[in-house]
Amino acid sequence: MLISEFASATGLSTETVRFYVGKGLLKPRRSTLGGSNPYQVFSTEDVTAVRMIQLQKSLGYSLSEIAALNREYRAGAKSVARTAEVLRNQIERLQEQRAQLDTALDFLTNKLTWIEGGKRGDAPQFLC
Questions:
Q1: ∠ at Cα 25 (19, 31), nearest 5°?
Q2: CATH of domain 1-61
Q3: What are the tens digits of pLDDT across the range 25-49?
C-alpha cells in the first residue's frame, strides 16, 4: 500500500509516517513506479511495526529506544538466539513495568478504600 493508504490503515498522519521512515522505525520497500523518485510501498508487516511502536510508546519507551530495539531485532533476525535474546530483554522490561503498575494500582485501590471508609486508621503508604 502507498503512504496515504498506510497512514489511513494505521491512523497516523503521512507526516508521522515519513518521520518514522526517516528515523528508521519503518522500512518500506521502494517500488519501480515513480521514476527517479520511487514510491514507498508499505506492507502488513509495516502495519504490525506501527502497532508495536504505538504499544512501546504507551509503555514509556522513547523513539530512540524503540529505534534501537528495532535495529537490534533486525540485526538479529537471521539469528534465532539473538532474536530470542532481544525479545527476552523486552519481556523482562515489560514485566518490571507491570510490577511497578501493580504496586501503584494496589496503593490507589487501598487509598480509595481508606477514603471511602471514612479515613479510619493509618493512611495506606506507597511502597516502591
A1: 80
A2: 1.10.1660.10
A3: 999 998 877 566 778 999 999 999 9
